[in-house]
From TrEMBL:
Function: Catalyzes the condensation of the acetyl group of acetyl-CoA with 3-methyl-2-oxobutanoate (2-ketoisovalerate) to form 3-carboxy-3-hydroxy-4-methylpentanoate (2-isopropylmalate).
GO term, biological process aspect, one: L-leucine biosynthetic process
Protein name, per record: 2-isopropylmalate synthase
Cofactor: Mg(2+)
Reactions that this protein is recorded to catalyse: 3-methyl-2-oxobutanoate + acetyl-CoA + H2O = (2S)-2-isopropylmalate + CoA + H(+)
Family, as annotated: Belongs to the alpha-IPM synthase/homocitrate synthase family. LeuA type 2 subfamily.
UniProtKB keywords: Acyltransferase, Amino-acid biosynthesis, Branched-chain amino acid biosynthesis, Cytoplasm, Leucine biosynthesis, Magnesium, Metal-binding, Transferase
Length: 585
C-alpha cells in the first residue's frame, strides 16, 4: 500500500531572516511518496531511447508571452519532423482559433508525414472535446489526450470535489473520447489520459483513476492507450518520482497493454533526472520540449535527455547533429534566449577558461590523436563529455584565454590556430607573458591578441640580422663564418661547435665577450594548412612545410627565449637565436 506522511513544523529558524515572510515552517515535506522498499529501478540502466513526444507546440506554446503564430508553429513542426519526432503534440485546438486552424492546415495541406502522429490536448469537457474532434477531421492517425487533475490540492481547493467525483470527471472524459472517435472510424485513434498532477496525487488513487479510465477504453481489447504521468509541478526529488512511476507500473491493471508516458516539469531543476529515473522505473515514452521551454521553469528538455543517452553510447533516435540550427529555430519561435551554459547547446559549454582544465583537455586530445588505434576512436576526454564536433561545434570553442588560464590552454590556441607546437619550457615561458597581459586588460584575450603577444615576445629581432654566412662541417666539427648586424652594428663572427647553432652562438660569444649557453632547443615543421609568417623568397613553393625553431639561451646568467620560422630548419634555428639575442643585448 502507498503511504502518505505528514509532518508538523516545530523547528525554530537558526538564522533570523531579513524578511519575516521567508519562513521555511510554512512548507511541509513531500507527502505523496509510495512505500516501495523493494524498488527495482536503481539497479537498471537505460539501454534504448524511449519513444519521444514533443509538446513544444502545446505546453511550450502555452507558456510563451506571445504564443506562436501559425507560421511559427509550422516552422517548428517541420523542424520537429526533421529532428525525427514521430509523435508531436500540435496544440489545444479547442482553446483558440489559431490552435484549431493549425490542426486544419496540417491535415488539409498534407504536412503530416506518414510515420508521424499528431497529438492534441483537451480537458474532460464535452464542448471542448467536440471541437477537438472537429479540428481533427480527416486525419489519418491522431492521439487525443484528455486530462483532469487528480491531486489533493486541486480536488480540495480548485474543484471542491471528493475522490469519487474527480474520478467521475476522468471516466466521463474517457467516454466522450470514445463516443466521438466512434463517429470517425476512418481515423486510427490513440487515446491518451493524464491524471494531471499525478506526482502530487496519492499513488493508490492515481492507479484507481487510471484503471477506471481503462475500464472504459479497454486497452486489453486492442484500443491503443497512452497513460501519461505528469509531474505537473515538480515537488520532490527525482528518486521519489521514480518510486511513484514504478509503483504505478506495478499496480495498474493491464500494464502490458498500455504505453506509460512521463511528462516532467522543472520546478526543482531535476526534470531531466526525473524522466531518466522514470524510464528506469518502467516508462516507455517521454514528453518534453526542445531546450526545455514550458510552464514556469519549463518542461523537461528532450535535447538534454537525448544527448545524455548519446554521451553514454545509446542511440538517441533523434538527429541533433545540426544543433545550432535547431537552437536558432527554437529560440526564434519561442522568442526566448538560450543561456550560455545551457547543457550541450550553450555558447560556453565546451569552453574551458581555467588552466588545469585546458591542460587536461589538450593532453587528452593529443593523447587520442597519437593513439587513435589503441583508443579505437572512443571519446574519452577530460572535461568534455562529448566531442563538440559531433554537434557542429568547433574546437575554437574549447579553450578560451583569460587570467584564469594556464600554459596548456595558451599552447592549445597556438597549436590549433597557428601551427606552433610549443615545447613545455616555452609554454611555461609564454604563459607568464599571457597571464600578465590578461591581468593588465582584465578580460578575455582574443586569439589574435595572443598571437600578437607571441610575435612581439619571441619573433622580433629588429637590429639583429644574419647577413652572409657559411657553415662547414669538418669531420663532425662545425665551423660558422659570417656577418651579422648586432644592435644595428655590422660585425664579423666566426665560431666552432658540434652543429650550426652551437657554432653560431660560439661566434657571437667570442665577439661580444658574453657567457652564452644554449639551454633548450626544439623544432618542428609547421603544417602547410597554417600560412603563418612571410614566405621564403628563395622557395616560393607553398606546399613546403615551414619549420619553427624554439631556442632558449643563458646570456650572462639570464634566460632568454626566441623563435624562428623559415622553410629551412637551419635558418629557422638561427633566426630563433637572433630573436633571443635581441632581447639579451
Ligand atoms: C498542466 C497543463 O498544462 S493543462 C493544460 C493547460 N492549458 C490551457 O489551459 C491552455 C488552453 N486552455 C484554455 O484556453 C482555456 O482553459 C479553455 C479555452 C480550454 C477553457 O476556457 P474556459 O472554460 O473559459 O475557462 P477555464 O479554463 O478557466 O475553465 C475552467 C473550468 O474548467 C474546469 N476544468 C479545468 N480543467 C478541466 C479538465 N481538465 N477537465 C474537466 N474540467 C476542467 C474547471 O474546473 C473550471 O470549471 P468551472 O467553470 O466550473 O469553475
Ligand atoms: C496536461 C498535462 C500533461 C500537462 O501538461 C502537465 O500536467 O504538466
Ligand atoms: Mg505540462
Amino acid at each position: 500500500m502507498s503511504q502518505v506522511t505528514s509532518h508538523s513544523p516545530v523547528v525554530e529558524p537558526k538564522v533570523k531572516p531579513k524578511f519575516e515572510a521567508f519562513d521555511f515552517r510554512k512548507y511541509q515535506p513531500f507527502a505523496f511518496a509510495p512505500n516501495l522498499p523493494d524498488r527495482t529501478w536503481p539497479n537498471k540502466t537505460i539501454e534504448k531511447a524511449p519513444t519521444w513526444a514533443s509538446v513544444d507546440l502545446r505546453d511550450g506554446n502555452q507558456a510563451l508571452i506571445d504564443p506562436m503564430t501559425i507560421e511559427q508553429k509550422m516552422q517548428f513542426f517541420k523542424l520537429l519532423v526533421e529532428v525525427g519526432f514521430k509523435e508531436i503534440e500540435i496544440g489545444f485546438p479547442s482553446a483558440a482559433q489559431v490552435e484549431f486552424d493549425f490542426a486544419r492546415k496540417l491535415i488539409e495541406e498534407n504536412h503530416i508525414p506518414d510515420d508521424v502522429t499528431i497529438q492534441v490536448l483537451v480537458q474532460a469537457r464535452e464542448h471542448l472535446i467536440e471541437r477537438t474532434f472537429e479540428a481533427l477531421q480527416g486525419v489519418r492517425r491522431a492521439v487525443v489526450h484528455v486530462y483532469n487533475s487528480t491531486s489533493k490540492v486541486q480536488r480540495d481547493k480548485v474543484y471542491a470535489k471528493d475522490l469519487e467525483e474527480i474520478k467521475e470527471i476522468a471516466i466521463k472524459g474517457a467516454k466522450m473520447l470514445q463516443d466521438h472517435a466512434a463517429k470517425h472510424p476512418d481515423t486510427e485513434w490513440v487515446f491518451q489520459y493524464s491524471p494531471e498532477s499525478f506526482s502530487q496525487t496519492e499513488p493508490d488513487y492515481a492507479v484507481q483513476v487510471v484503471n477506471a479510465v481503462n475500464e472504459v477504453w479497454k486497452p486489453e481489447e486492442g484500443q491503443q492507450v497512452i497513460i501519461n504521468l505528469p509531474a505537473t509541478v515538480e515537488s520532490s526529488m527525482p528518486n521519489v518520482y521514480a518510486d511513484q512511476v514504478e509503483y504505478f507500473c506495478r499496480h495498474v491493471k493491464n500494464r502490458e497493454h498500455i504505453i506509460v508516458s512521463l511528462h516532467t516539469h522543472n520546478d526543482r531543476g531535476s526534470a531531466v533526472a526525473a524522466a531518466e529515473l522514470g524510464v528506469l522505473a518502467g516508462a516507455d515514452r517521454i514528453e518534453g520540449t526542445l531546450l526545455g521551454n514550458g510552464e514556469r521553469t519549463g518542461n523537461m528538455d528532450i535535447m538534454i535527455m537525448a544527448m545524455n543517452l548519446y554521451s553514454q553510447g545509446v542511440d538517441p533516435e533523434l538527429d541533433l547533429s545540426d544543433m545550432s540550427r535547431i537552437v536558432q529555430i527554437v529560440s526564434e519561435c519561442n522568442n526566448l534566449p538560450v543561456h550560455p551554459r545551457h547543457p550541450y547547446v550553450g555558447e560556453l559549454v565546451f569552453t574551458a577558461f581555467s588552466g588545469s582544465h585546458q591542460d587536461a583537455i589538450k593532453k587528452s586530445l593529443d593523447y587520442n590523436e597519437k593513439n587513435s588505434e589503441a583508443t579505437q576512436n572512443i571519446w574519452d576526454v577530460a572535461y568534455l563529455p562529448i566531442d563538440p564536433a559531433h554537434i557542429g561545434r568547433s574546437y575554437q570553442d574549447v579553450v578560451r584565454i583569460n587570467s584564469q588560464s594556464g600554459k596548456g590552454g595558451v599552447a592549445y590556441i597556438l597549436q590549433r590556430n597557428y601551427g606552433f607546437n610549443l615545447p613545455r619550457w616555452m609554454q611555461i615561458d609564454f604563459s607568464r607573458v599571457v597571464q600578465q597581459k590578461a591581468e593588465d586588460v582584465a578580460r578575455e584575450l582574443k586569439n589574435e591578441e595572443i598571437l600578437e603577444a607571441f610575435e612581439s615576445t619571441y619573433l622580433q629581432n629588429s637590429g639583429y640580422e644574419l647577413l652572409d654566412h657559411n657553415i662547414n662541417n669538418k669531420g663532425g666539427e662545425v665551423e660558422f663564418n659570417g656577418q651579422m648586424t648586432l644592435n644595428g652594428e655590422t660585425i664579423d663572427i666566426s665560431g666552432h661547435g658540434n652543429g650550426p647553432l652551437s657554432s653560431f652562438i660560439d661566434g657571437v660569444a667570442r665577439h661580444t665577450g658574453k657567457q652564452l649557453h644554449i639551454i633548450n632547443y626544439s623544432e618542428h615543421a609547421i603544417s602547410p594548412e597554417f600560412t603563418y609568417g612571410e614566405e621564403d623568397e628563395a622557395q616560393s613553393d607553398k606546399t613546403n612545410a615551414k619549420a619553427a625553431a624554439y631556442i632558449q639561451l643563458n646570456v650572462d646568467g639570464e634566460i632568454y627565449s626566441g623563435i624562428g620560422t623559415h622553410t629551412s630548419t637551419v635558418s629557422a634555428m638561427l633566426k630563433g637565436a637572433l630573436s633571443a639575442l635581441s632581447q639579451a643585448f
